[in-house]
Design a protein that fits this description.
- This protein is an alpha+beta fold and 415 residues long.
- It contains 15 helices and 16 strands.
- The strands form five sheets. The protein has a five-stranded mixed sheet, with helices on both faces. A four-stranded antiparallel sheet has the order 6-7-8-9.
- It is globular, with a radius of gyration of 22 Å.
- It starts with a strand and ends in a 6-residue tail after the last helix.
- 40% of the residues are buried.
Length: 415
């Protein structure tokens, strides 16, 4: 455990400290913002989180309960003990201006927890995973274990593809998917922060319920809608609507769409021409947030890259050996007798430093991948990850960079 003093922090286990702080801030932020929570229950959670933060910060590092409550809505990095670096996320905060817990806060807690878990599996973690930490892993473990239980590659591919393609929707449609019963149980009611008067909207990129907020602008109330995943908002999944009365559903008006990237990146750019229509909350469900964020979101990048390469004549295996890694790409001229096989893992992490820690903890890729591919919107992570990956023979590229490279080596055009 890290012990902090006024002038020194002995970083015996920095990942444990960062994981404990991130999780405590996330739980406290949820307790402070969730509607309908009993005041005594809310206070109990906040006191527990305050105690956990004091343990992480160590003796000699003061943090009153009042200061803790004020800082929960700010940057979680400020609650780390002196000497422990913060997260590499611009304008990081736990609660946004609309009173919603941010995706960034959710991500850093999940990503640090994964790093800690891998370290502890290898006997290199001093801190202990709590019961809550273990509970948070159940959904992800359940999804993988149940999809791979049959030991059949085709069954695994079809089930995981369905999970990615249908993260939310009418119960009648979800019931006919090829999903094991325990995976189907991971679909829950539409999140409260994605509801407006009994309606919700699916993100045009990932199809998960978008967040909804009501704001006052120029003396008028305006509805604001956007995907919970920031990069999808940056692609154009951001809308407005006029508040309605009665039973009529609201209609979305798109914000001005940002221009797509360069010609190479437009190959993987999603189609956002369709404006999402309001769907009734009743009779609809959505995957729990962790499975959506760390199975569906990166899964979209995996499927998009696979589909684009197959369209260009390349052979691509999806999730070989029941997901040892994400893609096996056969590279070389069309008539070549023997083609090179590139093993690829796709990661979409908010924190590059957390992903770098994961690479260190696994001493490369746990499934034997030799390429780490990140979505184009994570291009600023390539330099840092390349430095880490080079120590383990792991090459790093954005999805479009990788696609262009393998197409060129196979004698076909990416663009």
């Amino acid at each position: 455990m890290n012990n902090a003093t006024n002038n020194d922090v002995r970083s015996v286990d920095e990942p444990w400290v960062k994981s404990l702080v991130a999780r405590s801030v996330l739980r406290a932020a949820n307790a402070m913002t969730a509607p309908g929570v009993d005041a005594s229950a809310r206070l109990g959670v906040l006191m527990e989180c305050h105690g956990a933060l004091l343990a992480a910060r160590g003796p000699g590092s003061e943090l009153s309960f009042a200061d803790f409550r004020r800082q929960v809505r700010g940057d979680p990095s400020r609650l780390l003990p002196d000497g422990v670096p913060g997260w590499d996320v611009d304008e990081l905060c736990a609660v946004d201006a609309d009173g919603h817990v941010t995706e960034d806060a959710f991500d850093i807690a999940a990503e640090q927890r994964l790093v800690l878990r891998i370290l502890q599996k290898g006997g290199r973690g001093a801190g202990l995973l709590t019961g809550q930490d273990l509970d948070d892993e159940v959904a992800q473990e359940t999804a993988f274990a149940q999809l791979s239980k049959a030991g059949n590659q085709k069954v695994y591919e079809s089930g995981r593809t369905d999970l990615i393609r249908y993260p939310a929707g009418p119960v009648s449609e979800l019931n006919v998917l090829r999903l094991p019963p325990l995976v189907a149980d991971l679909y829950e009611d539409i999140p409260y922060a994605s509801r407006y008067r009994g309606w919700w909207f699916a993100c045009p990129v990932c199809r998960w319920p978008m967040r909804i907020a009501l704001r006052r602008e120029a003396g008028q109330e305006v509805g604001a809608v956007g995907c919970w995943h920031g990069p999808h908002q940056e692609m154009g999944a951001v809308y407005r609507f006029r508040p309605v009365k009665g039973i009529a559903p609201p209609e979305l008006l798109p914000e001005p769409a940002p221009p797509p990237g360069d010609e190479r990146e437009t190959v993987l750019w999603p189609d956002l021409e369709h404006i999402p229509e309001a769907k009734p909350v009743e009779g609809h469900k959505a995957l729990v947030r962790g499975v959506w964020r760390y199975t569906c979101v990166p899964g979209l990048a995996e499927l998009a890259l696979r589909d684009c390469l197959v369209e260009r004549g390349l052979k691509v295996e999806l999730w070989p050996a029941l997901d040892a890694y994400d893609l096996c790409v056969h590279v070389g001229p069309k008539r070549a007798r023997k083609k090179e096989r590139l093993r690829v893992d796709v990661k979409d992490y908010t924190s590059a430093t957390a992903l770098g820690q994961l690479i260190h903890a696994q001493e490369g890729d746990s499934g034997g991948a030799e390429w780490l591919v990140v979505p184009d919107h994570r291009a600023n992570q390539v330099h840092l990850l390349s430095g880490v990956g080079a120590k383990y023979g792991l090459q790093v590229a954005t999805a479009s960079q990788f696609g262009e490279m393998v197409c060129e080596r196979s004698g076909v055009s990416w663009t």
